[in-house]
Specification:
Blueprint: H1 11-23, H2 28-47, E1 55-58, E2 77-81, H3 84-97, E3 101-105, E4 121-127, H4 136-148, E5 150-159, H5 163-170, H6 177-180
Parallel strand pairs: 1-2, 1-4, 2-3, 4-5
Helix pairs in contact: 1-3
């Protein structure tokens, strides 16, 4: 029986993964950068006299960064991920924290508008999400999907690095035994990612 991408993370493997991510010192720099972005966006709406804006987190995983937005907005927050195991953990945490966050199963690299009721969001977040695009065309398709679900003056918040340079080190299980214990998991598409398709500093226009 074939295994779908969304089935890689099981209920048993997600719990230790979530604990590792929550406690990892390696996450602190990105947490600081993201918090600065959140504050900047919050201030933008405060200047308009608004205390709320809507947020969609694609590739939300267990919701570690989805939940962070609740400190900055009273508006609607949703998370989208292809992994059932990740979503189950996110929903379990939501039951405990009661932050009024909804989670949906779906692929953030494809048109997901029907999954989120064709709603447009003020902010769409994708942390390391674009790394899973397997080609330049897939990256353009993801950009179109994101733009389709943004409001006219909405913002896309993301983090990304050069997968061909960094991912082999990131996924070195000898150096990261805690990851090896989790078994098979979907890897960003560094194996199929053709860096020759891109020019240095090339922009993707949404």
């Amino acid at each position: 029986m074939s295994t779908k991408v969304g089935d890689f993370y099981t209920k048993e493997s997600v719990k230790p993964y979530a604990q590792i991510i929550e406690c990892s010192d390696a996450r602190k720099p990105e947490q600081i950068l993201l918090r600065e972005q959140m504050i900047e966006i919050q201030n933008k709406y405060k200047q308009k006299g608004q205390d709320s804006f809507s947020v969609l987190d694609i590739g939300c995983g267990t919701g570690i960064y989805t939940r962070s937005w609740r400190e900055f907005t009273k508006g609607e927050i949703r998370g989208l991920d292809i992994s059932k195991g990740m979503l189950e953990e996110a929903q379990n945490i939501e039951k405990e924290k009661k932050q009024d966050i909804k989670y949906h199963e779906g692929n953030g690299l494809e048109d997901f508008s029907h999954i989120i009721d064709n709603k447009k969001f003020d902010v769409i977040q994708g942390i390391w999400m674009l790394l899973y695009a397997s080609s330049k065309q897939a990256l353009f398709d993801a950009a179109k999907a994101i733009r389709k679900s943004l409001t006219n003056d909405g913002e896309f918040v993301c983090m990304i690095y050069d997968p061909a340079k960094h991912l082999p080190k990131y996924h070195n299980v000898e150096k990261r035994p805690e990851i090896a214990k989790l078994g098979d998991s979907p890897k960003p598409a560094n194996g199929n990612f053709d860096r020759e398709e891109y020019e240095e500093g090339e922009e993707i226009i949404f």
